[in-house]
Amino acid sequence: MPITTTRRRLLAGSAAALALPAFARAQSAVKPRLTVISQWSAGSDGAAITALGKKFEEKGGTWQHSPVPGFTTEMMNKLRAQIIAGDPPACSQLKGPEIAAWSKIAPTINLDALVAAAGYEKVVAPDLARLHKPGGKWISLPLQIYSTNMLFLSKRAMDKAKADKIPVTWTDFNELAEKMKAGGVTYPIANGGTRPDDGQKFEASLAGISPAAYRAAIMNLDKKALEGPEIKAAFAQARKISDWMDPNVGAQPYATNLKRFIDGDMGMMIQGGWAQGVLRNAGFKFDDFTITPGPSDNSKPVFLLNADAFIFWQRKEPDLQAGQTLMAQLVMDPAIQTMYSQITGSIPVRTDVDLSGEGWSDGQRRTAAALKDAVANNQAVLSLAHNMAQENGLTAAMIDVITEYVKNKTIKPEEAVTRLAEAVEGAR
Amino acid sequence: MTSAVSTATQPGRPATSEMVRRLPEYLTIWLPLLVSAAHLVSFSLWTIWISFTPSTLVPVSGWVGLRNYTAVLASRNWQIAFDNLLLFGSAFVLLSLVTGLMLAILLDQRIRGENVLRTIFLYPLAVSFVVTGTVWSWLLNPGIGIQKLVHDLGWTSFRFDWLVDRDMAIWTIVIAAVWQSSGFAMALFLAGLRSVDADIIKAAQIDGAGPIRIYRRVILPTLWPITITVVVVQLQFAISAFDLVRALTNGGPGIATQLPALVVYDLMFQRGQLGRGAAAAVLMLLILLAVLLPYAAWRYVQRRRSNHA
Predict the structure, then answer these.
(1) Contacting residues of B for A393, CB less than 8 Å apart
(2) Model pLDDT for residues B42-74, shown as the tens digit of each residue
(3) Which candidate from B57, B164, B271 shows the least CB-CB separation from A250?
(4) Which of B234, B271, B241 is nearest to B84 (CA)?
(5) CATH code: domain of residue A138
(6) Same domain, A58 and A90
(7) Nearest Cα to Cα of residue A307 among A138, A150, A127
């Protein structure tokens, strides 16, 4: 597609021209405007994007956000309809490998010049950067990061177990769970019954056992790795976890159990960092629980990355193009990332943001430190359960196997390994 | 428009003027019917076409033959959904039929407050399936619902945890669906019971038949056409059941309560596999036709028989 390429280059060039020397000139020439769609409409997510919109308006732009409440897939249905109608938003929420998949169905803009001008690439985790530049060009920008395998420990359950050591490896974790059980904690694990909940238990197990095997099997779908001993060990660990869960949880979200977790009726929770925000919103105190990176057998933190991002769709209107430039600059800005993460409870994408100040929690600081460590040790991997490792079709096929395994205790780990490999084969 | 048509037609022929006079009636009936039929047919054809293309996130042209169909049929999700449909469809139709009929017969006893009772039994039908599903999901949840209530009353060994039991979870959907729609069956049956000729019943009474015998031998046999209507309506609900399951179990525990409509939605809008989703939708249409075609044939035979008689 030679025409598209030249157009993209032209656009990138003009974007850079607008961005680099004289942003003020661009503003006087045309008032930046941005059409955005996202699923963030309520709660802390809604508050955060509204705050971002205010900043956009402070810089002289017109902010036109159309939230599509509900699941991400509903936002995607609106995006699909707009793309088919030839009228994509200037900017939309999208994440993980879906960025590459969707960029094939409609032209996006090249943000390379803006990213280079901001010096952004060197402060983003490499695996994360790769997701946002399919084909080597930046077309989307990550906004905030969560880890899906944080370990939450209930203070009261720890007291019941007479334990004070924070578990580091899976062996520590299993011992602590047994101690809790013996000490009168009804269910050592607090869990919901949704698909991502079950998926998280498996991915946390595998990544904690071997981040290398996780990368090969789950991210690269290496056939040999998919049938390897680490996968079987991960299924075995996931079974242990499921044995400690409340079997009465139907399809309810994990948040249903938060009170029992705080009361010490349930002991531990393997959840994303967002649970911190939920706990805080529910009125629980930080003293009631501890947040620490999920178990890792080599004792160095493993970070299962989940990141929200914006993708930028090609538009001809000069005001929308100016709006895209302004938005990209805002999203990369450390001050904006700080503001956003402090509202939602996530951590900034930039690894150079200082989290020691007020407004950050210990959990967020520990998460950020874990990310830094994990990146340094090549132990930051992409979450399967939250659609970061594979496209939706493959993810769903794999989660089918995992969720059935977690719920059906007659399936043996080795059977699950075969089924997982078959599911991958069938969905490709 | 009417005048234009009337000048074009020959005046004097009664059949034509009759047609002209009734033109507005024809227009009001046929125009909407044609528009909706065109929609239905064109979208069905479009879905069938998509099911043969390699479409993923957006519809694309191309031809992959039966690949989407073989992929769907081979998937565990579809196999589970199909087995569930057989079980759910038959159990739900049978139970709602029996419950509806029993309610209708009981209400038919000229009892006091019939109107109130009828409204109560019909009321669930007015509630949306999402609400039904959500309410029953709380009632059936062993940790907070009926089981907990009975435990709190003192019977602590009582177990009713079908919602979280893989093998029994499909029955919770049957329970909720029967609760929702047996009122509908009841209303139809009641109308049927009331339309039985009083003289025949009197004759049976004079011949000395008891009430049970009258129902069995005289009244129920006249209900056949209604029974078949109820079965067909309920079956097509069962085949296309979506919102109830989504709210009640969302296909869980695991994927134990998948149903075809959930699979279609999942493939199309969550997995971004439009082609496969369309193939699953076409398979659903085929199942529906397997129910509706025999029904149409039966209607046809019935009509011919009554014409001959």
Answers:
(1) 56, 271-273
(2) 999 999 999 999 988 888 888 999 999 999 998
(3) B164
(4) B241
(5) 3.40.190.10
(6) yes
(7) A127
